[in-house]
């Protein structure tokens, strides 16, 4: 059994950024989405699916050709549909799903590995495990759901994400304290972008 499938959500329309698609903005000399995919590729995660939607052609064009992509026809309905599209695209049997947001370029391979390794160390004892990284008691991303929740994730009806599943199963959640705030810093607005690129 492969370990964990990473699902990178890149289907949103980045409405709060204005006219530009934030995932195509430059970061470290390359498009932001390309940077984030490369960082995941440097981690121990070997099964990555990028979920496309808004501007799918443009975003797909800057991704490495080896990356598996899937198009979410319902991307306008919200984040949950992209999570579900990504899970449905996972071909192997896995222990869990790491749900990654594509607007968090400060995340490093070590961040991904720390969360992944914590999950793998605990999943055999806790088959219903959900791992959530935290920094100074603030919850961040990415989150890993055990494959136990596959059916629940696929049937989830809240369009804005899977926080309700986390709340409903809070006894199964293990929080991992992180040493820095990378897990909190996403880009929604031009101000966020300016802050992240320093």
Walk me through what this model shows.
This protein is α/β, with parallel strands linked by helices and 198 residues long. It has seven helices and ten strands. Strands 1, 4, 5, 6, 7, 8, 9 and 10 form an eight-stranded mixed beta sheet that branches. A hairpin with a 2-residue loop joins strand 7 and strand 8. The protein is globular and about 45 Å long. The N and C termini lie far apart (41 Å).
Q: Tell me the number of strands.
A: 10
* Spatial separation of the terminal alpha carbons: 41 Å
Average per-residue pLDDT, rounded, comes to 94
Largest sheet: 8 strands, mixed
Shape: globular
CATH superfamily: Spore Coat Polysaccharide Biosynthesis Protein SpsA, Chain A
Quaternary state of the chains: single chain
Count the domains.
Answer: 1
Percent strand equals: 15-25%
Report the top-level CATH class.
Answer: Alpha Beta
What's the gyration radius in Å? Answer: 16 Å
Structural class, by secondary structure, is alpha/beta
Give the helix proportion (percent range).
25-40%
CATH topology: Spore Coat Polysaccharide Biosynthesis Protein SpsA, Chain A
The helix-strand sequence is: EEEHEHEHEHEEEHHEH
Low-confidence stretches: none
CATH architecture: Alpha-Beta Complex
Number of helices: 7
């Amino acid at each position: 059994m492969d370990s964990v499938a990473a699902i990178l959500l890149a289907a949103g329309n980045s409405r709060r950024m204005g006219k530009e698609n934030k995932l195509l903005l430059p970061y470290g000399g390359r498009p932001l989405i390309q940077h984030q995919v490369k960082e995941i590729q440097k981690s121990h995660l070997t099964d990555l699916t990028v979920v496309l939607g808004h501007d799918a052609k443009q975003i797909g064009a800057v991704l490495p050709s080896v990356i598996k992509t899937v198009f979410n026809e319902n991307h306008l309905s919200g984040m949950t549909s992209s999570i579900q599209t990504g899970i449905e695209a996972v071909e192997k049997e896995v222990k869990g799903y790491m749900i990654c947001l594509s607007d968090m370029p400060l995340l490093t391979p070590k961040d991904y590995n720390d969360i992944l390794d914590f999950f793998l160390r605990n999943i055999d004892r806790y088959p219903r495990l959900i791992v959530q990284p935290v920094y100074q008691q603030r919850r961040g991303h990415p989150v890993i759901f055990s494959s136990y929740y596959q059916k629940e994730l696929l049937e989830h009806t809240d369009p804005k994400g899977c926080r309700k599943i986390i709340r409903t199963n809070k006894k199964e959640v293990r929080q991992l304290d992180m040493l820095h705030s990378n897990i909190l810093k996403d880009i929604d607005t031009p101000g966020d972008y300016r802050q992240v690129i320093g």
